[in-house]
Amino acid sequence: MPIVYSFANGDALSSGLNEFVEKVSRDAIADHGHLSIAISGGSLPKILSKELAHNKNVEFSKWHIFWADERCVSHTNADSNYLEVKKSLLDHIPQIPQENIYAINEKFASEKDAERAAVDYEEQLKKFFKNQLPSFDLLLLGMGPDGHCCSLFPGHPLLEEKKRLVAPIFDSPKPPPERITLTYPVVNNSKLVVFVTAGDGKKDMVQQIIEQPEMDLPCQRVKPTNGQVYWFIDHAAAAKLRKESCSEYKL
Ligand SMILES: O=C1O[C@H](COP(=O)(O)O)[C@@H](O)[C@H](O)[C@H]1O
Questions:
Q1: Which residues does the UniProt record annotate as the domain Glucosamine/galactosamine-6-phosphate isomerase (predicted)?
Q2: Fewer Cβ atoms within 10 Å of its own Cβ: the N or the C terminal residue of the chain?
């Protein structure tokens, strides 16, 4: 069962998330010397970075940062998930070694060659995870208004992908159409998955995902085999949830 934390507003949400990420990072570094993290695009990077970008207690030099999904555009294009994370987080944290930042191959992305970009990104994952099924310490996901996460959209055949670690998508219903995405075998092998979403516009979908599990939406298929799912949301996004669906926030 997912654990849902609802915060009074955006600032409180960013603050709770910052505290949580700091703890996960400390635990992972104490356990195996680094934190492997994959991050979504969309609204998440801004919520995440508000406090985290200035957090002096995190050993960012031991972070390895991947993307949960990426759009096939150049790294300077406004649609780039890499650019969003760079602007809001990475540009403020020089301690993260450049070689620990695993962005999509910009050539393939600019050429909209989603197939080669996906193969290349899968190679990056295999190299880092030493040919084992990737197991991120922390996967931070957004939730689209249609219930998608990563670039895994409702009803899309990619929801059934079992072999590839990273898959191309050529017909994303949300532009741009060419993208790459982590697949469920990787998502569901993560140690921790945290969904982060905010605002009134997300309240209906949050209610369906948390309280109507039979809908089989992409976010509902996130069920890590050996991990826990958390939802960090604000009161506006939680407005339609029953009180019992939320837990009291504690570290
Ligand atoms: O297209 C995407 O959308 C989702 C959700 O974005 P949001 O703006 O509604 O938070 C995002 O998680 C994903 O990474 C991105 O590529």
A1: 10-231
A2: C
Atom of ligand 1 nearest to the CA of 151: 16
Decide: 42 in ligand 1 pocket, CB within 6 A: yes
| Interface pTM, i.e. ipTM | 0.98
Is the CB of residue 211 less than 8 Å from the CB of residue 184?
A: no
pTM recorded for the entire structure: 0.98
Domains of the chain, earliest start first: 3-233 (3.40.50.1360)
**Residues 6-61: pLDDT tens digits?**
999 999 999 999 999 999 999 999 999 999 999 999 999 999 999 999 999 999 99
Contact criterion met (CB below 8 Å) for 70 and 125: no
CB atoms within 10 A of CB 148: 25
Nearest atom in ligand 1 to the alpha carbon of residue 70 is 16
225 CA from centroid of ligand 1 (Å): 24
Positions of E strands within 68-109: 69-71
User: Quick one: which of 23, 16, 39, 95 has its CA closest to 63?
Assistant: 95
Maximum Cα–Cα distance across the chain: 48
Q: How buried is residue 178: exposed, middle or buried, by Cβ count under 10 Å (0-12/13-18/19+)?
A: buried
Residue 38, token pair as written in the block: 């994959």
State if residue 218 touches ligand 1 by the CB under 6 angstroms criterion.
no
